[in-house]
Design brief:
This protein is α+β, with helices and mostly antiparallel strands. It has helices at about 5-20, 40-45, 125-130, 140-145, 155-160, 170-180, 190-210, 265-270, and strands spanning about 25-30, 50-55, 60-65, 70-75, 80, 90-100, 105-110, 115-120, 240-245, 250. The structure holds a DNA duplex.
Length: about 270
DNA sequence: ACCGCACCCTGAGCGC
DNA sequence: TGCGCTCAGGGTGCGG
């Protein structure tokens, strides 16, 4: 579930309970899909380390440790990081206990699509290296450059983390609506002006969501098109459409987001 | 290099 | 109540 806004809100919240504290003990469940670093190794290397900072790269969280190592966490679809978990609660995979005796921090993930990995000091991560520019600071020219040669629908390409890191299914739909671009447009057909519009829309929808405190508690009303197939468009009142693009549900207004945004009607006005 | 698809895992909601 | 089905906001890896 978490896209960039949820991850950023989590980062800000968890930074307060993590940064500056020394890890005394690590409790994990048995090895599973979520552990890119074996639980025993993770526990051994984290013990005694102090957390210097909690950073975000796209949808990844990175806890920087005092020995230069980094703890990488991805929340997948259902991952949660926080201090309000119960020890031994189902789906809790990691519990960090601290030397100060204060409240522990938990990593939970029902579906186990999340990931935990310890990167040694200076160790590179192919996952991180793959990421494009952070979507929160998307720039039109950068976006445009990455759409060259991409014939897939712009919606599908926006989900590619090497294009813009952090955009997921919800905010891809929201940004395309805001930019008045059809999700079905071949990515490479976007003009520089449209790339600018889209980059600005991506930044805007992400920032608004962070400001609202993005999360599961978000009001359905906060989304303009996502999950609203069949409902009237807020702009033109005609029904929104739900289609499947890149195996993901995709919501848009066929009238406000025309496939030929640079089509006949747009050209006629020029 | 790009694209579509299968797959990873669990729970919620729905029709019967 | 229970069963079987579909769906879910993540990413990777494969073959074409």
């Amino acid at each position: 579930m978490p896209e960039l806004p949820e991850v950023e809100v989590t980062r800000r919240k968890v930074a307060r309970m993590l940064v500056g504290r020394r890890i005394a003990e690590v409790v994990t469940t048995r090895d599973s899909y979520v552990f890119l670093t074996r639980p025993a190794v993770l526990a051994e290397r984290l013990r005694g380390r102090r957390v210097e900072a909690l950073e975000r790269a796209g949808k990844y969280l990175l806890a920087r440790l005092d020995d230069g190592a980094r703890l990488l966490v991805h929340l997948g679809m259902t991952g949660e990081l926080g201090g309000d978990g119960l020890p031994g609660e189902a789906h809790t995979h990691v519990e960090l206990r601290f030397a100060d005796g204060g409240p522990p921090v938990f990593f939970r993930d029902v579906r186990k699509f999340g990931k935990v990995q310890l990167l040694a000091a200076g160790e590179r991560s192919a996952r991180l290296d793959r990421l494009g520019p952070d979507a929160l600071h998307a720039r039109g020219a950068e976006l445009c450059a990455r759409l060259v040669g991409r014939r897939a629908p712009i919606k599908a390409v926006l989900l590619d983390q090497s294009v813009l890191a952090g955009v997921g299914n919800i905010y891809a739909d929201e940004a395309l609506f805001e930019a008045r671009l059809s999700p079905l447009r071949p990515a490479s057909s976007l003009t520089p002006a449209e790339c600018q519009r889209l980059a600005a829309a991506v930044r805007a929808v992400l920032r608004r969501s962070i400001a609202r405190g993005a999360g599961y508690r978000e009001e359905p009303d906060d989304f303009r098109v996502y999950g609203r197939g069949g409902e009237p468009c807020r702009s033109c009142r005609r029904p929104l459409r739900r289609v499947v693009v890149a195996q993901r549900s995709t919501h848009y207004c066929p009238r406000c987001q025309r496939a030929g945004a640079r089509g006949a009607s747009a050209r006629r006005r020029e």
